[in-house]
Automatic annotation (TrEMBL):
GO molecular function: oxidoreductase activity, acting on the CH-OH group of donors, NAD or NADP as acceptor
Name of this chain's protein: NAD-dependent epimerase/dehydratase domain-containing protein
Species of the source: Schizophyllum amplum
Family per similarity comment: Belongs to the NAD(P)-dependent epimerase/dehydratase family. Dihydroflavonol-4-reductase subfamily.
TM region positions: none
Entries under SUPFAM superfamilies matching the protein: NAD(P)-binding Rossmann-fold domains
InterPro entries listed in its UniProt record: Epimerase_deHydtase, NAD(P)-bd_dom_sf, NAD(P)_dehydrat-like
PANTHER family linked to this entry: NAD DEPENDENT EPIMERASE/DEHYDRATASE, STEROL-4-ALPHA-CARBOXYLATE 3-DEHYDROGENASE, DECARBOXYLATING
Keyword Oxidoreductase listed: yes
Length: 350
């Protein structure tokens, strides 16, 4: 399957869904910097105003499309007609819903809707990249585990099937991502003789980095950026206990590297048909706190628990080898990400 090349004239156009989000804004920016044209989907014109302002200098290569309900049948029929690639990123990220269907329905129907529209109307589409998550890979384990693209999270889906609204908040989000990703692969398998494009899925862990989407207060940050703000840049660490700050049970990646992985997933022929983990490594919040304290900033930072030992063994890790081999990825360090986030906060007066 041919991948997209930005050396053609006119440049290929890429549809990015959920374009006003934390990660998607960086994806749009990276695509434009690389010479692509971009059609950014948002739910209302108002939500697109910041994008139009932010990308005004890109020689008419950025346009907006409003799709109010991505889960509606045929929602993307018109939007896919003139694009060569799609990055489907819109999906609810929330850990306080009662009904799991509030997450599952838009995640699943949004993903399937994009693929169905591409099947029917996307004659010039060559590749579709879907943003999944390590949520569709990881399961809770008692012992330290390294997960890879061969792993599928069945635990969260079973929790929803058994417990419905009483399932854990984490299961609800993880199930939405798992069911959406699973459905995407099944759709491609079922329609492989009819489609002229292929599918790549990117699976990132917690994403941190400077913010370019529209946010005026820290409390309006998306869930991963607010977690970083709370644990690393709030003097009382949001009241998080020592065991949490010192645990090594999460992995992370810089938002600009996630954006780069998505763009390379469009560009690299070998990425077709693959799920690809994009992860910089494990984190212990105390490591980020120590890193932040070693950098110049106007911010009043917590000290955390600098005299306590941090665990050396990660409870879970994601094998990012495929991202390095197929996409040629290398990942920003904790120091670079921390420095740039703090500079962003300082510039905003937070
Ligand atoms: P944001 O919350 O910043 O952006 C989410 C985007 O999806 C927004 O454009 C939002 O639109 C849209 N969206 C949310 N709910 C719906 C819905 N019900 N119907 C239509 N559109 C909706 O999230 P992130 O940038 O953090 O996440 C982007 C993608 O990356 C998601 O698919 C997420 O699952 C995935 N991801 C994120 C990680 C992270 O750490 N941030 C880690 C791994 C994966 P609106 O503004 O109108 O609500």
């Amino acid at each position: 399957m041919p991948a997209l090349s930005n050396s053609t004239a006119p440049p290929p156009k890429v549809l990015v869904t959920g374009a006003n989000g934390f990660v998607a804004m960086w994806v749009v920016r990276t695509l434009l910097e690389r010479g692509f044209s971009v059609k950014g989907q948002v739910r209302s014109a108002v939500k697109g105003e910041h994008l139009v302002r932010y990308f005004k200098d890109h020689e008419g290569r950025f346009e907006l499309v409003v799709v109010p309900d991505i889960a509606e049948e045929g929602a993307f029929d018109a939007a896919v007609m003139d694009v060569s690639g799609v990055i489907h990123m819109a999906s609810p990220v929330s850990f306080d819903v009662e009904d799991p269907q509030d997450l599952i329905r838009p995640a699943l129907n949004g993903t399937l809707g994009v693929l169905k529209s591409a099947l029917k109307h996307g004659r010039s589409i060559q590749r579709i990249v879907v943003t999944a998550s390590v949520a569709s890979i990881v399961e809770d384990r008692d012992t330290p585990t390294v997960f890879s693209e061969a792993d599928w999270n069945t635990q969260a889906v079973r929790d929803i099937e058994a417990n419905g609204a009483a399932a854990s908040a984490m299961s609800k989000y993880r199930a939405s991502k798992t069911l959406a990703e699973r459905a995407a692969w099944d759709f491609v398998e079922e329609h492989k003789s009819e489609i002229g494009w292929d599918l790549t899925v990117i699976n990132p862990p917690m994403i941190f980095g400077p913010v370019i989407h529209e946010v005026t207060t820290p409390s309006a940050l998306n869930f991963s950026a607010i977690a970083w703000y709370t644990c690393v840049a709030t003097p009382d660490m949001g009241g998080k206990p020592k065991e949490f700050i010192l645990a090594r049970r999460l992995c992370w990646v810089d938002v600009r590297d996630v954006a780069e992985a998505h763009v390379r997933a469009l560009e690299k022929e070998a990425a077709g048909g693959k799920r690809i983990i994009a992860s910089a490594g494990s984190l212990c919040w105390q490591e980020f706190i120590n890193t932040a304290n070693a950098l110049p900033t106007k911010h009043t930072l917590p000290r955390g628990f600098p005299d306590d030992e941090m665990p050396t063994v990660a409870h879970l890790l994601y094998d990012a080898t495929r991202s390095k081999e197929v996409l040629g990825m290398s990942y920003r360090t904790m120091e670079e990400t921390t420095r740039d986030i703090l500079a962003d906060y300082d510039a905003r007066g937070w």
